[in-house]
Amino acid sequence: MNATTVTPHKEFVLYIEDLTVSFDGFKAIDKLNLYVDKNELRVIIGPNGAGKTTLLDLICGKTKASNGSIQFKEQELTRKSEHAIVRSGVGRKFQTPSIYENLSVFQNLEVSFPEGRSVFGALGFKCSDEVKARVQVVAEEIGLADKLDTEAGLLSHGQKQWLEIGMLLMQEPELLMLDEPIAGMSAKERELTADLLKRICKGRSMIVIEHDMDFVKQIASKVTVMHQGKILAEGTMDQVQSDPKVIDVYLGH
Ligand code: ADP
Ligand code: MG
Known about the structure:
With 253 residues, this protein is an alpha/beta fold. It has helices at residues 52-59, 82-87, 105-111, 128-141, 157-169, 187-200, 213-219, 237-241, 244-251; strands spanning 12-23, 26-37, 41-45, 67-72, 75-76, 90-93, 175-179, 205-209, 222-227, 230-235. The chain has two domains: 11-89 and 176-253, 3-Layer(aba) Sandwich (Rossmann fold); 96-172, no CATH class. The protein binds adenosine-5'-diphosphate and magnesium ion (MG).
């Protein structure tokens, strides 16, 4: 990118500069800069302990930054609570699914419809037609439209992960962050998840942390490689895969 084509600050959905967090003097994230565009699906890779999960923790407000700035749609997130960050349009999926096992797929999605989003929200109840329609759309997006009455605890591991993604989609996040979404999935489930991510990234920005290189190749346009709390490399899959620094610390092993 040359100087004349540098994208102005406000065109990035997520604009992170100088982000640092220390745990007892250890910098898990060290002066990190990261810029994510509208409608971009960014994959973050890197060795264990690189700081990938910590980065998501900082963006979603679970961990407070020691220094630096996280701007999302020009709002500073480092000063907001986790709830306020969710309300501003950031959804984050943790590594282990947190669904309600004894509720049906439908109910899991229904309870995830944001309070106050419905026109009737202020009156303290949800417009059932509006919620049902949204549940239907999301269930189709996550491939569970024929499982709406199934108890969530009876779903396969992969289906549970998709359900949790669906629960986040109920809130229509503009930035959706997934931490190792295919961990523990079967080959077939991994393939379906790649398709799912390509479907749901339309109209929103996404950050996906993943280890499986075949999977990354299927979904990624731009890959960021993290190492020791910093960005080691950034580019297309081909660019990062042939980068000697990346081969040295990560792909070579
Ligand atoms: P990754 O997800 O890339 O494997 P993490 O973000 O989980 O890496 O961890 C980065 C580093 O920060 C690791 O060395 C980890 O032990 C450390 N770390 C993460 N969270 C904390 C914490 N709350 N307190 C102390 N150290 C932490
Ligand atoms: Mg991690």
